[in-house]
Amino acid sequence: MNHVIVETNLKDVKLLRRGKVRDIYEVNNYLLIVATDRVSAFDVVLPTGIPGKGKILTQISLFWFNQVKDIIENHVVSADVAQFPEPLKKYKDILEGRSMLVRKAKPLAVECIVRGYITGSGWKDYQKTGMICGIKLPEGLVESQKLPEPLYTPSTKAQQGHDINISFEETVKILGEETAKKARDFSVAIYKKASEIAEKKGIIIADTKMEFGFFNGKLIIIDELLTPDSSRFWSIKDYSPGKPQDSYDKQIVRDYLISINWNKKPPAPELPEEIVKKTAERYEEIFRILTS
User: Fold this and answer.
1) Which N-terminal stretch is annotated as signal sequence (predicted)?
2) Topology of 1-104 in CATH?
3) For all residues of the chain together, what is the average pLDDT?
């Protein structure tokens, strides 16, 4: 099994922040994003890491950044530790495969979500209102059904707790019309291209979340892209509308935590070895399928 890294400690490098999964450092004019093996559920980071998870997230993001570079530029400068600035090279053992040196972009204040299928919070919304995020949908759709067209459903970024879905009109107020339209159009174009690529490999991308930012006055894609932490991947072979689908992600962890009646508040419980192993295998499987 891979060595598990749940926290990085690059002593002579300036740590800007720790996210749920990523540790972000400042290096000269760049940021260093390190994807750890931390796993969160219900907005709480668990004490147990998933071996190899950070490397898989990084490599999947790099794969997709490359696939969609004809649509939009991304923030990656290098993912090769040998090309990193001097203070970082001695941390090769930690950084290899799980880090990206990136441009410092100014992130947009909204997250860009595209839904191709009706599932998760979108399904709950539709059952109550016949809409998803204020967008009227045809009657009689069933859970996990493919939507007539991919829906763009942005949300605000919450520092704590859940993001809040907002309408496109609200993003115009936050970002201005030109940027709001660009973010929407890029998001949908990326989703459509990625879906075509994934379907050829037997995978449905049910929905995904993206982040954009400005660098030198130009909108680019940042953060991660189309990973199991930001997207729902389903097997075409097993796809069966009318019920929830089995996702290539940390659902195994969520199901376990529900089964032990954890109250979803910190501190989170340790995960049993068997759950860790199954989750690691799930991440490895989607990595192999997508990037093969």
Assistant:
1) none
2) Phosphorylase Kinase; domain 1 (3.30.200)
3) 96
